[in-house]
Specification:
Helices cover about 75% and strands about 0% of the residues. It is mostly helical and about 325 residues long. The longest helix is centred in the first third of the chain and has 39 residues.
Length: about 325
């Protein structure tokens, strides 16, 4: 009697299986790359913004340059493409602009004006992944794991040491600047969690953030007579226009959104906590702000916390097929 053929599915072997097993690691590597680009640009932003708000320009001018130029450059994205954005997506973009657009920039700029570049770069980016992890755990029921929680604790300890060490070397912490920077961190964290579940591409999200922020702010800025652009030198205006309008409003937002899509919000935001290290190093030659020995030790603690908290979990390391298809490298 002939034996019935075995119709049970056989394991897939060969190049296809090998390629499939390599995809998660490649996605993680791409996510780390985009997160690294974001870290470099964001770190420089704290230094560049501090450079201007302590001279002729004010936070209103920096905000106008960032979103005004960014809106002009990215607006064609909202008009082109294979499909028109739905009304729901325009409203979603308005929410993103309220979280990581105009209010966020104003809060950070206020903190920069009242503190130092190193301290501002330490507080907001360092607390952001901690807020993101806590919010994801409380509201989304996402398990963080012991290793990641240890990373968050190390980040917070490093931040506290950094603030205390900086206070002894550079003076006390401003009572207005500190809450402003903490509020900015919380808004940034909420944005990362919401964007992970968005159908918008990174470029579309960046374009909507710039568009809505420009619509809400530029009329007040122009009609209210807040502009001090005429008092700044042409070189300073050129620096701020390129950094605020092109790098921050375009490249940084897109690269950060890509890292969130590939790594997940917890891992991507944890890497952002490396910004204090880069910003503190950049502030030495540009602003003459030399960290104290205690601040260097605190930065090392923050880095150790980032290495723990930035480990992508098994679930977020492999993005959904729809996400991978929507965000080509």
């Amino acid at each position: 009697m002939n034996q019935a053929p075995d119709l049970a599915p056989q394991p897939i072997v060969g190049p296809a299986c090998t390629l499939q097993s390599q995809r998660p690691s490649r996605s993680v590597l791409r996510g780390f790359f985009w997160a690294g680009v974001s870290v470099m640009i964001f770190a420089g932003w704290f230094v560049v913004t501090r450079f201007s708000v302590t001279r002729e320009l004010r936070l209103w001018d920096v905000t106008a340059l960032r979103f005004g130029i960014g809106a002009v450059i990215l607006f064609p994205v909202l008009l082109g493409g294979k499909r028109r954005l739905a009304a729901r997506e325009w409203r979603e973009g308005l929410l993103y602009a309220c979280l990581w657009g105009l209010p966020f920039v104003l809060a950070v700029a206020l903190g920069l004006q009242l503190t130092s570049a190193g301290r501002a770069a330490a507080i907001t980016p360092t607390l952001m992944p901690v807020f993101a992890g806590i919010f994801a755990w409380v509201f989304l029921r996402e398990k963080q794991g012991r290793v990641r929680w240890c990373g968050y604790i190390a980040i917070v300890i490093g931040l506290i040491c950094m603030v205390v060490g900086g206070a002894s070397a550079h003076g006390g912490v401003n009572s207005v600047g500190l809450p402003a920077l903490m509020t900015a961190a919380a808004m940034w964290a909420v944005y990362t969690l919401l964007f992970r579940r968005s159908a918008l591409t990174p470029v579309q999200a960046a374009a909507l953030i710039c568009f809505w922020s420009a619509v809400l702010f530029l009329p007040v800025y122009i009609l209210g007579g807040f502009s001090r652009l005429a008092l700044a030198s042409s070189s300073e205006l050129a620096l701020q226009a390129v950094y605020q309008g092109v790098l921050m409003s375009g490249v940084a937002i897109v690269s950060f959104n890509r890292s969130v899509a590939l790594l997940g919000p917890s891992a991507a935001t944890a890497i952002i906590a490396l910004i204090p290290v880069v910003a503190s190093l950049a502030a030495i030659p540009m602003l003459g702000e030399l960290p104290s020995p205690a601040e260097w030790v605190a930065l090392a603690v923050v880095v150790s916390g980032v290495l723990l908290a930035a480990r992508p979990s098994h679930r977020t390391a492999t993005p959904p097929i729809s996400t991978t298809m929507r965000y080509p490298a």
